[in-house]
Specification:
The protein is of the alpha/beta class. The protein is built from 10 helices and 6 strands, in the order E-H-H-H-H-H-E-H-E-H-E-H-E-H-E-H. Helix 1 crosses helix 4 and helix 5 (about 120-130) runs parallel beside helix 10. The structure holds magnesium ion.
Length: about 250
C-alpha cells in the first residue's frame, strides 16, 4: 500500500495554474482621466439604491447585491440587466425611462456626497505636477456636479459625461473624448476607475488601466477585466503616478 503524505496530492488532481499576465511597468501619464462614482466620491451604494427604487416603481424587484457589479456601466445596460434579473425584457424606450428615473432618485439621495480619501489630494498633486486631468463618467450631466464639487477643488476639472456620447462604458467613447478634449494621445493616458467596466473601457481606449479598490470590485475582478495595476486607494495611486518612469 502506498503511503499518502498529507497535502501531497497527485499532480493530476491539482488545479491548473493560470499564468498571471505580466504587464510592463506603466510610464508616467501624459494625462489622467478618472471615473467619478466609487473612484472620487463614495456614491456606489446610493447608485444601487437609486436603481432599486427606479425598478421598484415598475414592479420589478431587483436585489441590491446583484446590481452592484453593474454600477459604472452605461445606464441602458444597467436598466436591461436589472429588468432581466426581475424576469422582464424591456425595449430601448423603457430602458431610457428607468435610466432617467434612477438619475432622479440618485440626485435626491446624493444631497451631501462624500469624497473618497485622497481624491482632492490626488487631483491637486496632478495639477502641481502639470499632468492634465479629466473626469469621464457614465452618469448624466445633471447628476455629476454635486459629486465633483464635493471633492473641493479650486476649479472644476474637464468633465465628460454620459450625455456627450452614444455609448458609455464599457465602450471607450467617453475616455477617447476626454483625451481628445485634453489634446493628448490616448495611449499616454491612465484611466482610473473602481469597476470592471472602467478597466474594459480603458483597454478598449488603449489607455493604461488603473484600478482602485474603492468600490465593490476586488483586485482579482479588476485585473481579470484588464487592469494594468490595482491599488488600495487614491494615495497609493498618487505615489504610483508620480513615481512612474518617464
Ligand atoms: Mg465607478
Amino acid at each position: 500500500m502506498t503511503r499518502q503524505v498529507p497535502g501531497a496530492e497527485p499532480p493530476e488532481r491539482l488545479p491548473a495554474l493560470v499564468p498571471w499576465p505580466v504587464r510592463p511597468e506603466p510610464r508616467r501619464p501624459g494625462a489622467v482621466v478618472l471615473d467619478l462614482d466609487g473612484t472620487l466620491v463614495d456614491t456606489v451604494a446610493l447608485r444601487v439604491a437609486a436603481w432599486v427604487a427606479a425598478f421598484g416603481e415598475l414592479g420589478m424587484e431587483v436585489e441590491p447585491q446583484a446590481l452592484r457589479r453593474w454600477i459604472g456601466a452605461d445606464g441602458h445596460l444597467v436598466a436591461r440587466a436589472g429588468a432581466q434579473m426581475a424576469g422582464r425584457e424591456i425595449d430601448d424606450e423603457l430602458a431610457d425611462r428607468i435610466d432617467h428615473r434612477s438619475g432622479e432618485h440618485f440626485n435626491h439621495l446624493n444631497a451631501t456626497p462624500r469624497p473618497l480619501p485622497g481624491a482632492r489630494e490626488l487631483l491637486l498633486a496632478l495639477a502641481s505636477a502639470g499632468i492634465p486631468r479629466a473626469i469621464a463618467t457614465a452618469s448624466r450631466a445633471g447628476q455629476v456636479l454635486a459629486s465633483v464639487d464635493a471633492v473641493g477643488l479650486p476649479a472644476r476639472p474637464l468633465i465628460v459625461d454620459g450625455s456627450h456620447v452614444r455609448h458609455a462604458k464599457p465602450a471607450p467613447d467617453l475616455l477617447l473624448l476626454a483625451a481628445r478634449r485634453l489634446g493628448v494621445a490616448p495611449d499616454t493616458c491612465w484611466y482610473v476607475g473602481d469597476s470592471t467596466w472602467d478597466m474594459q473601457a480603458a483597454r478598449a481606449a488603449g489607455m493604461t488601466a488603473a484600478g482602485v479598490l474603492t468600490g465593490f470590485a476586488t483586485s482579482h475582478d479588476l485585473l481579470a477585466a484588464g487592469a494594468d495595476l490595482a491599488v488600495y486607494g487614491l494615495a497609493e495611486l498618487q505615489r504610483r503616478i508620480l513615481d512612474a518612469p518617464r
